[in-house]
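Sorry to interrupt, but I need a hand with the structure work. Leave the record below and I will have a look:
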Amino acid sequence: MKFELRHGRPEDAIEFAKLLNKSIKNKTAPFINTNRPLTLKDTKKYAKSIRKREILYFVAEVDNKVIAAVSARLAHNVSLGWAIDENHRGKGIGTKLLKYVCTELKKIKRLKRLECSIVSENKASIKIAKRAGFKRAGILKNAFKVDNGRYHNLYIFEKLL
């Protein structure tokens, strides 16, 4: 399958929000501080953040449709989160996109460390992080609560630039 990796644009925010809403529904998005679906207002806020370069987005696109995305909140530590369309999982797109993101972020000299929090049961995202060169740095016990009141552990992964 042929796909394009590129920097996200403000107009990608709606497609990105759709991917995130699926991750929220599946309880695999601890990098989003909500269990409720993202609204149009949230999407506009993300688009504004993209324009202001507070958050960088990177996407994988097939036939002009965003099928995977990574967000990067910028500080000297960069907090990453990602979502991949369920029809395109298991094809290596997430790994290639995260490696691309790491390469692009390394170009920003003030950035020193990348990190991500992954629900301990999310084996696919753990594989993606490891394949992109991240190492498990620790565990946060019972740190992610889902709607049914159940708590999950979060693994913290890091990569030094």
